[in-house]
Automatic annotation (TrEMBL):
<dbReference type="GO" id="GO:0009425">
    <property type="term" value="C:bacterial-type flagellum basal body"/>
</dbReference>
<comment type="similarity">
    <text>Belongs to the FliE family.</text>
</comment>
<dbReference type="GO" id="GO:0003774">
    <property type="term" value="F:cytoskeletal motor activity"/>
</dbReference>
<dbReference type="Pfam" id="PF02049">
    <property type="entry name" value="FliE"/>
</dbReference>
<keyword id="KW-0282">Flagellum</keyword>
<dbReference type="InterPro" id="IPR001624">
    <property type="entry name" value="FliE"/>
</dbReference>
<dbReference type="GO" id="GO:0005198">
    <property type="term" value="F:structural molecule activity"/>
</dbReference>
<keyword id="KW-0966">Cell projection</keyword>
<keyword id="KW-0975">Bacterial flagellum</keyword>
<dbReference type="GO" id="GO:0071973">
    <property type="term" value="P:bacterial-type flagellum-dependent cell motility"/>
</dbReference>
<keyword id="KW-0969">Cilium</keyword>
<protein>
    <recommendedName>
        <fullName>Flagellar hook-basal body complex protein FliE</fullName>
    </recommendedName>
</protein>
Amino acid sequence: MNSISPIGVSSINSLLNNQSNNQTNKTDDKSFSELLNNAITEVNDTQVDAYNAMEGIATGKVKNLQEAVQKIEEADLSLKLALEVKNKALAAYKEIKSMQI
């Protein structure tokens, strides 16, 4: 059996660098519309999960009530965040639109 070697700072830094390089490569390849579409899809998926959880609570099919409530709260927070982002984007658009050239 191999012994477990201690984790050094250099190995942690190399892992962090590899992870950050992978994340930047993934986001650089996507356009703004793709990122926006993915975000909206994620919000929609959480809403569907929450609806299914509410349906399960109403019908008594939920085995773990805590997970169902957690899904509902997650959907609520993701929708609120999406609405705030939309409001900020519209406010920025209106501010840019009102600028004189």
